[in-house]
Amino acid sequence: MATIKNLFVDAGSDFSTTITIKQSNELPFNLTNYTAASQIRKSHDSSQYFSFNATIPPETATQGKIKLELPAAESEQIPHGRWLYDVEITLTESDVIIVRKRVLEGIVQVDPQITQDITL
Question: Concatenated DSSP letters for 62-90?
């Protein structure tokens, strides 16, 4: 079962967070050779989605760390409100998926941008 963590994104701002995936014994899950993916959707069956840039930095892969990022230009495209998200990790060998697992899920609250660019 995936861990639940809710996220808060300010539309029009850069967003970044690092999450740590742990094993059942609370030790970090070694993510070496894994890839990560993450999408935001209004509902589980919604066809519209936005993607977090989900990466596993090589220097922290053995510590179970996944970085989620959303640049300001992308966050401002997401309508404000409550969204769902998850993070999946995948281990592939010779183009064959060996493991695919959802490790994190929750709600993303997107707050609208108040300060806008002003053109004179």
Answer: GGTEEEEEE-HHHHTTSPSEEEEEEEEEE
In the beta sheet, which residues pair with residue 41?
49, 84
Q: Residue 93's pLDDT is what?
A: 84
Cα separation, 31 vs 3, whole angstroms: 16
Q: What is the pLDDT of residue 120?
A: 57
| 2 burial level (CB within 10 Å; 0-12, 13-18, 19+) | middle
pTM: 0.88
Q: Cα dist. 59→36, 67, 96 in Å?
A: 15, 12, 25
pLDDT single digits (tens) 31-80: 999 999 999 999 999 999 999 999 999 999 999 999 999 999 999 999 99
Query: Where do runs of H (alpha helix) occur along 1-120?
Result: 72-75
β pairing state of 7-10 and 49-55: unpaired
